[in-house]
Amino acid sequence: MTDQDVSLRIIVENPPVRFKVQRGKDGLLDATSANAKQLVFEFSVRARAYGSGAPNFLGPFAQGPVGGRFVYVNSGTMGGDTDADWQRRAKVPLSGITWSMIEKGSIIEARIDGTARDGGPACATVPLLGGGWKIAQ
């Protein structure tokens, strides 16, 4: 099977600060659209089957080991805000994206809560809201 391009959308609900998606080691992607209630990030990764046949995500936005890939959503100084008091990264797991979703050729989206329990920006591995990755409507 050849690589397939996969369009992803991550929606950060109730962001207490500015967030950016990490590209590669130190690049940052601005939100595609933003308002006080949500930030929307759209970008692409590539999918290729690995050992078990599950999708392995590749490209500058895919972080982590094969079988455990994720996307970093950064805030504070890690998000390029040099005056911020925060230095955080939220890990958005790519698990749950299936070949049947990829083959539809649509945008696949997930939502996360931008606010952590301490009231600051989300960090560490974050749960996906609304049941996980879905085909965008």
The general outline is globular
| Strand proportion | over 45%
- SSE string: EEEEEEEEHEEE
* Helical residue percent band: under 10%
Task: Report what the structure shows.
With 137 residues, this protein is mainly β. The chain has one helix at residues 99-103, and strands at residues 4-13, 19-23, 27-29, 33-34, 38-49, 55-58, 70-76, 87-93, 108-113, 124-125, 129-135. Strands 1, 4, 5, 6, 9 and 11 form a six-stranded mixed sheet that branches. It has a five-stranded mixed sheet with strand order 3-2-7-8-10, with no helix packed on it. The radius of gyration is 14 Å and the shape is globular. The two termini are 27 Å apart. The mean pLDDT is 95.
Summarize this structure briefly.
By secondary structure, the protein is mainly beta.
Describe this protein with a few key phrases.
mainly beta, six-stranded mixed beta sheet, 11 strands, five-stranded mixed beta sheet, globular, 137 residues
Topology:
Blueprint: E1 4-13, E2 19-23, E3 27-29, E4 33-34, E5 38-49, E6 55-58, E7 70-76, E8 87-93, H1 99-103, E9 108-113, E10 124-125, E11 129-135
Parallel strand pairs: 1-9, 8-10
Antiparallel strand pairs: 1-5, 2-3, 2-7, 4-5, 5-6, 7-8, 9-11
